[in-house]
Amino acid sequence: MLPKQPPRDGQPGFLYLPPIRVHGISVAGEQTTITIPEFDLTFDIGHCTRACLATPLIALSHTHMDHVGGMPYWFSQRHFQKLEGGRIVCHPENVNPLRKMLSGWVDVERQRTPFEIEAIEPDSEIEFRKGVFLRAIETHHTCPSLGFAVIEKRKKLRDEFKDLPQSELRRLRGEGADLTFETEIPLVAYTGDTDRGDFLERDEFRKAQVVLSECTFLDPDHKERARIGRHLHLDQIKELLDIWEADDVVLVHMSRRTLISDARSKIEGLGDHADRVHLLMDHRTNRRRYEAQQAEAIADRDSVVNEEHPETPIESQSSEQVDGSG
Fold first, then answer.
1. Distance CA 150, CA 13 (A)
2. Positions of the chain with pLDDT lower than 70, given as ranges
3. Quick one: fold of 13-301?
4. Phi and psi (nearest 5°) for 322?
């Protein structure tokens, strides 16, 4: 009798939620790393995936091992592959412990790998792309923790100036008039590990186009476990879906004990909200969804080609030849 093959390592999940991609792996107690390639940004670093290795910025929600385990390797590999930059931002109370952890690797490896860990205060933000900001939001977990929101800021002309000609606008601007106001567009929000709190109803979450939310527990009997561990339960997600306006809500951080088929059945029971809720680790459903997106994109492309280069009907070609021969 042959022995069984060893279990395969976890496969990263993937979702295309136009215009962004969500790539990562998230299993409660094991590893969580979620990358948004369009922003060169990764949330948490429990495992160093190939996708997150290419991102120069990691927003760390908290310091439990399944969210920081890949950090030393990430810094080491970026240095080894001569990738410039690379920094991690986290709750101020977590900065020194993380720096001590990484400094310990100098003696272990007998070499000094550069690293950059910065504090980001709750309700503060950093501009990591032109006009795009990462904002930290304090959350409630069993250690100091943060959620994050990616926010685009735009300048818009005030209503009272919209009908004025450009020459008049230039004159007013030259006189120091304040012609514009700033508007914020929450693009992506990430809860990190947390329990329920009013902070999840802030505009950063309520108006985000995509919400990445932990949902560690789904069974009705596990509400007390969620409360003790300061995690979110599916019943709380259902409440939040009435508040969040996002087109897409991606649930992460489920336990390996939760069967994806059971989780999908429970999601389908969410009624009108079910179509906008996705499970990052539901590989089969997500693959079918992406294949349908590919087929639709090909059909749209072919339609455009046919409109730009319509074929001349055979009947028209024949009549033209007859007319030309006379």
1. 21
2. 309-326
3. Metallo-beta-lactamase; Chain A (3.60.15)
4. -65, -45
Note the pLDDT tens digit of each residue in 232-242.
999 999 999 99
**DSSP assignment of 249-310:** EEEE-B-TTS-HHHHHHHHHTTGGGGGGEEETT-HHHHHHHHHHHHHHHHHHHHHHHHHHSP
Residues 6+ apart with CB under 8 A from 18: none
DSSP string computed for 176-191: T---EEEEEEEEEEE-
Hey, is 245 helix, strand or coil? coil
In this structure, the dihedral spanned by the alpha carbons of residues 126, 127, 131 and 136, taken in order and rounded to 10 degrees, is: -30
**CA atoms of 245 and 22, how far apart (whole Å):** 18
Q: Angle 286-290-294 (CA atoms, 0-180°, nearest 5)?
A: 170
Radius of gyration of the chain (CA): 25
Residue 226 burial (C-beta neighbours within 10 Å; 0-12, 13-18, 19+): buried
Give the closest residue to 116 by CA, choosing from 95, 91, 143: 95
User: For the chain, what is the mean pLDDT?
Assistant: 91
> Of 181, 116, 194, nearest to 153 (Cα)?
181
Retrieve residue 307's tokens: 């409109």
For the chain, domain boundaries = 13-301
